[in-house]
Amino acid sequence: MRLTFGFILRTMRITSTHNPRIKAVAQLKERKGREQAGRFLIEGAREIARALAAEVRLETVLISDSPLSLEERQVYANLARVERLEILEVSESAMKKLSSRENPANLIAVGQIPNHSLAASEPSKNALILVAVGLEKPGNLGAVLRSADAAGASAVLVAGGVDLYNPQVIRNSTGAVFSLPTVAASEEEVLLWLRQHHIPLVVSTPHTDTLFWQADLRGRVAIAVGPEHQGLSQEWLEAAQTKVRIPMQGQTDSLNVSVAAALLLYEAARQRS
Fold first, then answer.
1. Angle between helices 138-151 and 257-272 in degrees, nearest 10
2. How far apart are CA 199 and CA 179, in angstroms?
3. In 3D, which of 184, 156, 125 has the Cα closest to residue 262?
4. Taking CA 181 as the corner, what is the angle to CA 177 and CA 183, rounded to the nearest 5 degrees?
5. In a 3-state reduction of DSSP, which class is residue 89?
6. In this predicted structure, what is the pLDDT of residue 11?
7. In the listed set 85, 112, 139, which residue is the last one of a domain according to the structure?
8. E strand spans, 137-259
9. Most buried residue, 25, 32, 139, 199, by CB count within 10 Å?
10. Residue pair 75/43 in contact by the 8 Å Cβ criterion
11. What are 129-171's pLDDT values in tens digits?
């Protein structure tokens, strides 16, 4: 055992990749496994630190038998305040089986999926909400969350598409999924919620003359972005009160969705400053 904590922890050393505990944790890399268990993986010191700050319920931490970096040692020490936390010290090969990275981190935590309800969410008077509709790539959703957090969005609504607790989403968001209020729901649920709370909807589409800096993005507003290859569906376009476009000067006909989200959110932030 690397450290002595104030709480009683059950510590186990596992070297085989065929151990049932390793197999059970590895199942959380897949959406079906996460949905069945109600658990997800958090890999990396920074991501675990942000999950701790957001009071995500952690149940197990797996630590590699490789040397820890200074940041990893600091985060590992901070886990001392987590009650009833199980520590599994695993071999480097076992960690590679659990990791979603080319170069695995030395810390992976198993946490309970937060029970965030859209129906129970109440937007503030001047809420700036980003709606990510039908995104198919977890890396893109993670980057969108990162951009939303940096631009000062009030919340992100994930309407359909990729699983919010995919390991790549967690990684690419650099843990912003924990610090930024984020709720996943179906597209129908999100549209209904926006109507019920009388939140004006702004959508990004190339099929309009209004440039995004010409629209009024002050006050309570929701900005929706969709998948790059097909954009937002007709249902979302018809539901919008305002349609804006991002001008394209070169040969490309689309931006990465996280870049588009960042441009729109930072323009909203500029108008509010």
1. 10
2. 23
3. 156
4. 85
5. strand
6. 62
7. 112
8. 155-159, 182-185, 201-204, 221-225, 242-244
9. 25
10. no
11. 999 999 999 999 999 999 999 999 999 999 999 999 999 999 9
